[in-house]
Q: What sequence folds into this?
């Protein structure tokens, strides 16, 4: 096969890099074009909202100036107010659809109000702290946006001074306008609309959650001025969390294109945020088209190269298939051989253990047979030697020494008899027929055998599951033999400790039953723990045991298809667990 020449490869790389560079530059131009287009569209969409807001504000701006020329209002400001003036203001409010119209004296005290007959009337309230009142008292028309100090409702306040016959300012006439109906018309599917004041506080918003949030963090002086004017009541004025990047803003996890426009009143600005995803969708479309074109170009460039490599791939495919099949067959054969080797090692280990146990059983039977009768005879002779002699022989020194010697021999014979007894248990094969066995009876039988020894050693016995009944299939006597051996070992392990605690628990689940024997002794030595169930492995002193008890117990448990395990427990002591399969339920 002929491979592409280095010159061709370099040319392809250069063309690819050039195409990527052109695509990147073109993408920047596309972004700027789409951004300009979207800003122009935002300006067109914002125009109706801006026009409606300015129209409402200008319409009500002239209302206080007109009312300030009303003769009855002037007389009321001069001090001749009557209930009829409040009713007159109520008619003006109904005609102009203002939320409230009210007249204040030079101190800011409301002396007449259109809502005089409502629970939250302005009548009698003092609004001298409001900027629109101060502006009117200074001789200028006033306007202000705030949350009502009396009603708690936001509104646009406009005011004008009321002058007497001499031109002196004798009061202030004001109107409150509800701008919230405008928000109901701001249902733009193309973005978010809101109005922010000069301090950056959002006063009107399409989204209720954005109202009274701030575009930036407010400093202490600004917050102090807002508090003096009581402009936003108890609102916290928390930042909206707006992050700017040129004409792009991010709020939360959403990016917008920001269009702003001055309203020309109160330092207010209208904000229209269009979703940036509008540009992203167009951008992705352009990228997709460019990618298709670039892919076609690359496909044309790579076509000849792919043709030259295709034949090689076809010819080598069969070779790879054959090699893969051979590798799979080899891996499967290796795995099968490893599994067979593991099974062989396990079988050899079990065979060695069985052979060892069988040989030891034969040896134990032979030793028991050869030593049993001589030991019985020796026991008889020693017993006869210890019988009382004639009165004439009593008190002789020789007789006393002989008696002591016979006593020592008797104890030695007892020890040898105990050894042959253990050998007899080890040599005896299980011939007991399996039947239904209640493990509670096994525990009770073992405790009946060992209770004198438990009491003699001063051991505290704890058997919380004594009344629980769990059935298994097995030989009761053989299982009792295992449990007796475990209890005896536990007593031996606690001889050197002060706090002697023996706990026997009976547990079960859906699959198995467990008898747990726990002692408070010194625990299992690390070196012996791995070989503890081997014959002739013991931690006892010479002459105190042959190390056959746990080997016998493990052999019995294995006959029952069970498992015998041991472990140390935290705080001291050891725990042996006898685990057996539950009796299968009878077929219905």
A:
């Amino acid at each position: 096969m002929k491979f592409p020449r280095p010159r061709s490869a370099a040319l392809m790389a250069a063309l690819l890099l050039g195409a990527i560079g052109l695509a990147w530059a073109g993408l920047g131009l596309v972004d700027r074009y789409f951004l300009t287009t979207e800003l122009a569209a935002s300006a067109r969409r914002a125009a109706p909202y801006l026009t409606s807001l300015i129209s409402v504000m200008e319409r009500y701006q002239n209302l206080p100036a007109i009312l300030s020329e009303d003769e009855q209002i002037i007389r009321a400001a001069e001090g001749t107010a009557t209930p009829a003036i409040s009713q007159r203001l109520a008619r003006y409010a109904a005609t102009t659809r203002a939320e409230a119209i009210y007249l204040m004296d030079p101190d800011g005290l409301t002396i007449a109000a259109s809502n005089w007959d409502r629970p939250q009337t302005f009548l009698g309230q003092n609004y001298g702290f409001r900027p629109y009142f101060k502006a009117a008292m200074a001789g200028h028309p006033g306007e202000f946006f705030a949350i009502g100090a009396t009603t708690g409702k936001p509104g646009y306040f406009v005011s004008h001074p009321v002058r007497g016959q001499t031109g002196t300012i004798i009061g202030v006439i004001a109107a409150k306008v509800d701008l919230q109906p405008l928000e109901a018309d701001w249902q733009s599917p193309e973005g978010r609309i809101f109005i922010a004041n000069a301090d950056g506080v959002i006063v009107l918003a399409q989204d209720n959650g954005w109202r009274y949030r701030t575009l930036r963090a407010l400093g202490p002086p600004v917050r102090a001025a807002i508090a003096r004017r009581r402009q936003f009541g108890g609102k916290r004025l928390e930042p909206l969390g707006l992050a700017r990047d040129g004409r792009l803003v991010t709020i939360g996890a959403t990016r917008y294109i920001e269009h702003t426009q001055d309203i020309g009143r109160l330092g207010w600005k209208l904000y229209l945020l269009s979703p940036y995803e509008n540009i992203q969708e167009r951008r992705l479309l352009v990228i997709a088209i460019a990618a298709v074109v670039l892919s076609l170009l690359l496909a044309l460039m790579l076509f000849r190269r792919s043709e030259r490599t295709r034949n090689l791939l076809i010819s080598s495919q069969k070779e790879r298939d054959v090699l893969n099949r051979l590798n799979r067959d080899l891996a499967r054969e290796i795995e099968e051989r490893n599994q067979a080797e593991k099974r062989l090692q396990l079988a050899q280990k079990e065979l060695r253990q069985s052979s060892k146990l069988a040989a030891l059983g034969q040896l134990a039977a032979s030793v028991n047979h050869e030593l049993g009768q001589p030991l019985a005879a020796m026991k008889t002779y020693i017993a006869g030697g210890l019988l009382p002699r004639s009165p004439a022989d009593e008190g002789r020194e020789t007789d006393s020494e002989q008696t002591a010697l016979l006593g020592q021999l008797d104890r030695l014979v007892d020890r040898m008899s105990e050894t042959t007894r253990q050998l007899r248990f080890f040599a005896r094969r299980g011939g007991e027929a399996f039947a239904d066995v209640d493990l509670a009876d096994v525990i009770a039988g073992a405790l009946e055998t060992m209770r004198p020894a438990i009491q003699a050693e001063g051991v505290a016995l704890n058997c919380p599951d004594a009344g629980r009944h769990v059935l298994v299939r097995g030989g009761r006597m053989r299982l009792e033999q295992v449990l007796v051996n475990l209890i005896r070992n536990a007593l031996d392990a606690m001889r050197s400790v002060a706090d002697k605690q023996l706990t026997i628990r009976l547990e079960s689940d859906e699959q198995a039953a467990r008898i747990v024997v726990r002692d408070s002794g010194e625990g299992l030595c690390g070196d012996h723990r791995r070989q503890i169930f081997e014959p002739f492995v013991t931690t006892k002193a010479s002459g105190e045991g042959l190390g056959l008890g746990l080997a016998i117990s493990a052999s019995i448990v294995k006959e029952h298809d069970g498992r015998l395990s041991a472990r140390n427990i935290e705080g001291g002591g050891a725990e042996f667990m006898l685990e057996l399969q539950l009796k299968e339920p009878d077929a219905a």
